[in-house]
Structure formats: C-alpha cells, structure tokens
TrEMBL record:
Name the record gives this protein: Uroporphyrinogen-III synthase
Broadest EC class assigned to this enzyme: lyase
InterPro entries cross-referenced by the UniProt entry: 4pyrrol_syn_uPrphyn_synt_sf, 4pyrrol_synth_uPrphyn_synth, UROS/Hem4
Pfam families: HEM4
Length: 252
C-alpha cells in the first residue's frame, strides 16, 4: 500500500487518514502547525461594527475561522451575520456556515483568494475579511482595487510545531519509506522545512521529497515549495483535500 504524508493540523488528521484508506492509501500523519485564537480585541470590534450596521459583506476564508469566530460570540452573532452578505471561500466553509444556521449568499467557483477577487467586486461596500494571520495578501488588495472598503480581522494565528513528533516524521521521510507528500498550505511546508533545518538535514529532506510525488492545495503553496527547491507534481483545480488526494492517486 502506498504511504502518503499528511501534514495537516491535528484535528483534521483522523478524517484525512480515513479518506486515504478509502482510496487504498496509507496515511503517514503529522501535525506541522496548530491554530491559536487571536485575543487582541479584533473579534469584539468586528461584532460591534456588525451590530452597528457598519458592515455590508463578510468574507470567511476557512471553516476554522468560523469556529473561532462563533466561539467568541453569542447566539445573536448568527442572527447578525444573516442580515449581511456572507461569502464563503469554498464548499467546506459554506457547509460549516449552513450547519450553524448561517446562509452564505456567495461562493467562488475557484476556492481561493484569487477566485474571490476574480469573480466578485464590492464597489463602495464595507467588506470584512475574517481569516488567519497567514492570509493571502491578494485578497485584501484585490477587493480594495475593486472599490471595496476593506477591514481585516485576524481570528487565529498559525503556529509551527517543532517537537519530537515532527522530528520523527523528518526521519521517516529521510528513510524513503514515504511514497508521496501532501501540503495543504504554505505554512505546513514551511514548518517542515524549518524543522529539517534545525536538525541539520534540510538538503537531505529536499532530496528525499523530490524523489517522491508531491501534491499541494493552492498556488501559493506550490510557489513556496518551488522557490524552496521542491518539485510539485499535483495541484488540483479545486482546492480541497479530497480533490488533492484524488489527483495524487492518479499519478501514484
């Protein structure tokens, strides 16, 4: 059975492993980062603007962001969100919104910041972008270039992990016993390379990865890896984990 590295946050690893099994693949899971809620008053300020009818459009770029947002608010937040236009970046975020009683009015056909900018513009409207501290700068600039008045709120920080579990994963990668590597964000890839660098085996790890197949979600992730000297074999047209694995399975 082909062994596929999955470098997602811990809460997503069980479902990822299950999906790989359904495709006849074995997961080699390791969390390379964790998500930590931001407590700088930004969410409270956003809710105040929303309550004061100072918001026209809310853009949510992940289901994780929605989770952190709702953990900080009360039930009235759902009612307030349903009074404005909510744009979900992709189907998983859209589903998460609907499950919590929020009705997203829009979603791009390409599930990315670039897709939002290409397909939507909000001239003169007050747009709130809710996301992590590693959001694609293309989104803010693109919306502003389209005439929107944009306010960005950081809901959570992405923090690299650097412990024994990650060290063990690097050694497993160096052994050659992993057939493919997957990266769902540039940060997961960066965290892995930083860990290898701290162990003094960065070049060896790059060689080990380049000897196998590499699949990623999103052009920013692909660009980061290419600029780091790692070849990318698979970037699915739709930016979901399942689409990435489906595309990878076809080339393994």
């Amino acid at each position: 059975m082909r062994r596929v590295a999955v470098t997602r946050p811990a809460r997503f690893l069980p479902a990822a492993a299950e999906y790989l099994r359904s495709k006849g693949l074995e997961a080699v899971p390791v969390p390379m980062m964790e998500m930590v809620p931001r407590n700088d008053g930004g969410v409270d300020a956003f809710v105040e603007r929303l309550s004061a009818w100072q918001v026209d459009v809310v853009v949510l770029t992940s289901q994780n962001g929605l989770r952190f947002l709702l953990e900080r608010g009360d039930k009235s937040l759902i009612e307030l969100l349903n009074k404005v236009e909510v744009l979900a970046i992709g189907p998983k975020t859209k589903k998460a919104l609907e499950e919590r009683g929020i009705k997203p009015k829009s979603m791009p056909s390409t599930y990315s910041s670039e897709g939002i900018v290409k397909e939507f513009s909000f001239p003169g409207k007050r747009v709130e972008v809710l996301r992590s501290d590693h959001g694609n700068p293309v989104l803010i600039k693109g919306l502003e270039d389209g005439g929107a008045i944009v306010t960005e709120t950081i809901l959570y920080d992405i923090v690299p992990l650097n412990g024994k579990e990650q060290e063990g994963f690097v050694r497993e990668a160096l052994s050659g016993r992993i057939d493919a590597f997957t990266f769902t964000s540039a940060m997961t890839a960066k965290s892995l390379l930083l860990k290898a660098e701290s162990m003094g085996v960065l070049n060896e790890l790059k060689m080990a990865i380049n000897a196998k197949k590499v699949a990623v979600i999103g052009n920013p992730t692909a660009e980061f890896l290419k600029n780091s000297g790692i070849r990318v074999d698979v970037v699915p047209d739709r930016f979901t984990f399942e689409d990435m694995i489906d595309a990878l399975a076809r080339v393994l």
